[in-house]
Design brief:
By secondary structure, this protein is α/β, with parallel strands linked by helices. Helix content is about 40%, strand content about 15%. It has a single domain, classed as 3-Layer(aba) Sandwich (Rossmann fold), CATH 3.40.50.1820.
Length: about 290
């Protein structure tokens, strides 16, 4: 792994494959680290002739933390949003999309296939809207247009109970609980493997303040309906039929808004990146990427 300066911040990244092949940039979701994209998934894409880049978003993993921004008052921000006010945020998703563009520039990648999951899908959408010349194709997974009129999540409060301490056992218990609630029932993690993975992620870095800053960026994100309608990049929208965090209707709406987007509703898929699910996703994504060659 390595790091570079992007948009004024140090971002940690790792690559797979030949740098002369078409690039695929993987963008993780809220609180997830680059290691949450399974290595076999990345290697499968690379073996198919793609240069794969996975990285830690700002405020997470080994990328730069913005502790000088403080911990946002989520309740106050949500109250402001409900009143139609514009709250002051540490940063927003546009800033995080600019991070991706800066990462690509630092790696001398003129354009790439953008693959984003959940919050990463939102960031990927913004890439396609505001950095369209850098996007060869877009894959938006388990994500949304942020339209307030979409059905609310059936399970959301569990994400707000992340431990503030660095206690390993508490964080592992939290990770297991989250996966129990929103994980993919048809693509379940092996429990022992999941526990080991969570432990490895905590040992690598656990930053609850960064998690909350990312969380407020998601909650305060602007609706992207008009922007989505202007996307010209070939787009694949993947969503889980059993997603309790971002309802399937959000994926359907996203695909309807983006011209000529293809929608894949996956039975048994929830809201996670289990190895079994990523193996299935790789097949869907490769079909999409190969069609653009």
């Amino acid at each position: 792994m390595a790091n570079l300066i992007s948009n004024g911040l140090s971002l940690e990244y790792e690559t797979f494959g030949d740098a002369t092949d078409p690039a695929v940039v993987l963008i993780t979701g809220l609180g997830l680290q680059l290691v949450d994209w399974p290595v076999p998934f990345c290697e499968r894409l690379a073996a198919a002739g793609y240069y794969v880049v996975r990285f830690d978003n700002r405020d997470i993993g080994l990328s730069q933390k913005l502790d000088d921004k403080g911990v946002p008052d989520l309740r106050a921000i949500l109250k402001q949003l409900a009143a139609g006010e514009v709250p002051a945020l540490p940063y927003d998703l546009h800033d995080m999309a600019d991070d991706v563009a800066g990462l690509m520039e630092g790696l001398s990648i003129e354009a790439a296939h953008i693959v984003g999951m959940s919050m990463g899908g939102m960031i990927g959408q913004l890439m396609a809207i505001f950095h369209g010349d850098r996007v060869l194709s877009l894959t938006s997974i388990s994500s949304s247009s942020s339209d307030r009129y979409l059905p609310p999540p059936a399970a959301n409060t569990v994400l707000m109970s992340a431990p503030a301490s660095q206690d390993m056992e508490a964080v592992v218990a939290f990770g297991l609980e989250v996966n129990d609630v929103i994980g993919s029932p048809g693509f379940r993690w092996d429990r022992e493997a999941l526990t080991a993975h969570i432990r490895a992620c905590v040992a690598r870095c656990y930053c609850p303040a960064g998690y909350m800053r990312q969380y407020t960026a998601v909650q305060a994100s602007n609706v992207r309906r008009l922007g989505l309608e202007g996307i010209t990049a070939p787009t694949l929208v993947i969503h889980g039929e059993d997603d309790l965090l971002v309802p399937p209707e959000a994926g359907e709406e996203t695909a309807e808004l983006i011209p000529s987007a293809r929608f894949e509703l996956v039975d048994g898929m929830g809201h996670d990146l289990s190895p079994a699910l990523c193996d299935h996703l790789a097949g869907l994504i490769l079909t999409h990427l190969d069609a653009t060659r």
